[in-house]
Every structure is written in C-alpha cells, then in structure tokens.
Specification:
The protein is an alpha/beta fold. The chain has two domains: 51-72 and 342-444, Alpha-Beta Complex (Aspartate Aminotransferase, domain 1); 82-338, Aspartate Aminotransferase, domain 2 (3-Layer(aba) Sandwich), CATH 3.40.640.10. The protein is built from ten helices and 14 strands. The strands form four sheets. It has a seven-stranded mixed β-sheet with strand order 2-8-7-6-5-3-4, with helices on both faces. Strand 9 (289-295) and strand 10 form a beta hairpin. The longest helix is centred in the C-terminal third of the chain and has 37 residues, at 328-364. It is flat, with a radius of gyration of 25 Å. The two termini are 49 Å apart.
C-alpha cells in the first residue's frame, strides 16, 4: 500500500482483538536465534518526499533516468502525499459526475462543502462554488460576473496574466461584445496599476504571483478598481497562500486560480481544477453550484445544493453561466491535500518554493551570458534570459535530462531569448546545480 492510515489506537485495538500486548509478540513463534537481536543499522528516517526521491533514484539506476521537471507556466511538479490518492480513490467518491438528485449523495456533498470552505479560507473570501473546469475557465467566469454586477462591458487585464487565460477569455466572450484591454507590464515584470483608469471598466484582472513568477500589487489594483467603480479580480496560485496575503485581504472582490497543484498530478494536460471565490454580496452572480449545510426533517445535519445558477436549473436568460458541472473528484483530492498540509504545512510548502527559487536565481543568474530578466520578489518561477532563443535552449536541456520552459517568445516577441524556469519544493539543490551546469555547458559550446 502507498499509505497506511493506522493510528496507535488502531494498532492497540487490533492487538487487543487477537489477544496480544505488543507487536513484538507476533514474532514469538520465530526461534530466538534467527530473530533480529536489536535495532537495524540504518540511516536516519526520511520524510515521505525524501524517501520517494531516494527510491526513485535507486530505481533510475535500473530503468534509466527520466527528465527532471523545471517546467512551469501553469502546470507544476509538486509532491503529492500518498494519503491523497489513498483517500480520494475510495469507492464512496466514485459516484456519477453530476448528481441530478444531489441529496442522495450526502458524502460527496459534504466533501464539496469542505472544499468550498477550504477555498474560502485560503483566498480570504466569504463564498466559493463547487469548482470549475480549470483556472482559465474560472477567470472567464469571474470577468462575466463583474460584467453582470457593474453593467459595464470592459475588462482591464494585466499583460502578466497567463496568456492561455487571456486567450480563453477572448474566445469565451467573443460573442458578448466585451472589450478586453491588455495593460502592458514594466521592466520589472509587473503592471503599474496606479496609472490605470478604471472609470469605465467592469473589472481589473491582476495575477499574483504572475506568469513570470513576480508578485503583483493586488492591493493597489483593488484600490484603482474601486475608485473607478469597477471590481478587482485576482488570479492566485493556491500553493502561495501560506506565504503571501490572501487576495481577499488585499482588496480583491473575486479570487480565482488553478487548483491542480493541490492533490492532482500533471497527467498529459489534465484534468485540472478551477477555483472560484468571492464576497457574499456577489453570491447571486456566482456561476455553477454551491453546496450548503442545513437541517433535514429529522433535525439532523444535511447537505444540499444551495444555489444552482446554471441553465439546466433555471431559465436560460437568467442563468449566470452555461457551466454544467464541477470537477468533484479533483476538488476532493485538493481538499484532502489541504487538510493533510494544514496551515503550517501550507506555509512550509510556500517557504520551500521561495527558498529554492531564490537559490536557482542566484546560480542561474551567475552563468556567463545569462541573467535573471525580472528582479524582485518571486514565487516558484523565474525568467532566465540567455544568448539563444528560449525554445532552442529548452530542447538542448532535454538532452541533458531536464524539462524546462515554456519559452516565452511564443507570446512575448521581446522575450524570445527567455525561458521560464519553475522550482517547486520537489527540486533539490542538487537538481538545481545540475540544471545550472547543463545550461553553462550549453552556453560554453556556443
């Protein structure tokens, strides 16, 4: 088994059931002369991620090493505790993807309710929905919410928001007549929100940490939005919530993000998990579903779908969205992961990402011919500028056993020689040194 959930109390209960006092009693039938006489001479115990890394290194000697992941841009190689898969894979959660008679699925509804509570807590918001398809979908729904709430049809979107999110936003709203204006970024890799006029906008969209890994000033963006009668939408990585202020605490009205880093592996581009949370006074504009807690006819606690503001439940003209379902299984996995981490674990995760990103920046920035393009506070990602196109360097690094990228020239022509490097808590200092050595070799050979 990947995960053994037995507690000390469980062990005592099992021993009592078979009439034993200690686990050592189970080995009494084995002759003393062949039993282990004392503790094993082994190294100190390892944490779960360290043990998995060690066993993977041993296995790689036989099977050949795979690529070490430094790729980012929205999909990240995080450690997934074994408990997540063990619990999320229980048969109780393998129900139909969309409960048309939801009250029959009390366990799933309770799990979704706990998910919503977790999202509210990490984002500093008052209400969250039962999840959406992915981060890009969540952003689009957030912009649509602000359009309905303000009766305006213009969105100011930072150029440092994930390009895929902006593309989805444009595609999704193409028939609605919305004006999507992209606000350029400065040399620091952030947007100067203080210079923006939001007087005719429905919303300002700010991502922090942004696509380059830089921290944006969400508070200033919110103040500018509110001064102009607009709403502030923050796109935020949930794994950063242990080390930076929640978007709700920084003045955002809506917080969205990609939740796949919590409890879900990177498997060929999906499935992903859209996080969506907002303030209570906007609850009637929230898309999708909201699970709620109530009391049944017998006075017992029960769970229901409190709001189902989708076109299958109410008249099409009054539906907030055509979103038909939610990512229940992925949301459950994310909830288990957050509960497993707890506040201290989430903080520790964020701190590890910050420290290892800083370590990578110090090494990579010293390579001759290279530099870190955007200086300043970063989380989990950095932009490395080199003398060669980023796509070319990414291909060369794959031959050294490293997966890096994406190359930024695809979306930003001025950054054609730049490569996005992601550093999660899984990347050891030896991994980072190996990447630096591989880049240095490539630079020396050109």
């Amino acid at each position: 088994m990947d995960f053994l959930p037995h507690t000390d109390a469980d062990d005592r209960a099992m021993l009592e059931a078979i009439g034993m006092s200690h686990i050592a009693d189970l080995f009494e039938p084995i002759p003393a002369e062949v039993r282990l006489g004392g503790p094993l001479d082994v190294p100190p115990s390892l944490s779960e991620p360290e043990l998995i890394e060690h066993l993977g290194a041993l296995a790689a000697k036989n099977l050949g090493a795979g690529l070490i992941g430094f790729a980012g841009g929205g999909a990240y190689d995080h450690h997934l505790p074994s408990a997540v898969k063990a619990l999320a894979s229980r048969a109780e959660f393998a129900t139909s993807y969309t409960p048309y008679q939801p009250e029959l699925s009390q366990g799933v509804l309770q799990a979704v309710f706990e998910f919503q509570t977790s999202v509210c807590e990490i984002y500093g918001m008052e209400v969250a929905n039962a999840s959406l398809y992915d981060g890009a979908n969540a952003l689009t729904e957030a912009v649509n919410l602000t359009v309905r709430a303000t009766k305006r049809e213009r969105a100011l979107v930072g150029a440092t928001v994930h390009p895929h999110y902006v593309e989805v936003l444009r595609t999704y709203t193409a028939g609605l007549g919305l004006d999507i204006e992209v606000v350029p970024f400065r040399d620091e890799g952030t947007v100067d929100w203080s210079s923006v006029d939001a007087s005719e906008a429905a919303c300002i969209v700010v991502q922090s940490p942004n696509f380059f890994g830089r921290l944006e000033d969400v508070q200033v963006a919110g103040e500018v939005a509110h001064a102009g009668g607009a709403l502030a939408v923050a796109v935020t990585d949930p794994t950063a919530m242990g080390v930076i202020a929640a978007p709700g605490d920084q003045g955002a009205d809506v917080a969205v993000g990609e939740g796949a880093s919590l409890g879900n592996p990177t498997v060929y581009g999906g499935p992903y998990l859209g996080l969506f949370a907002t303030k209570l006074d906007l609850v009637r504009q929230v898309p999708g579903r909201i699970a709620g807690e109530t009391i049944d006819a017998d006075g017992e606690r029960a769970y229901v779908l409190t709001l189902q503001a989708r076109e299958q439940h109410i008249r099409r003209s009054k539906a907030t969205s055509n979103v038909c379902t939610n990512q229940t299984l992925m949301a459950i996995a994310a909830t288990i992961h957050l509960a497993w981490l707890g506040p201290a674990g989430l903080q520790r995760l964020g701190e590890l990402c910050v420290r290892r990103t800083a370590f990578a920046a110090s090494l990579l920035g010293d390579i001759p011919g290279c530099r870190i393009r955007f200086e300043g506070p970063k989380f989990k990602e950095l932009v490395l500028e080199t003398p060669v196109p980023g796509a070319e360097l990414a291909g060369a690094l794959a031959k050294h056993g490293f997966l890096a990228g994406p190359a930024l020239g695809r979306w930003f022509p001025d950054l054609d020689n730049c490569l996005l490097i992601a550093v999660t808590e899984k990347r050891t200092e030896d991994d980072i040194r190996g990447l630096a050595e591989a880049i240095e070799k490539e630079m020396a050979g050109r």
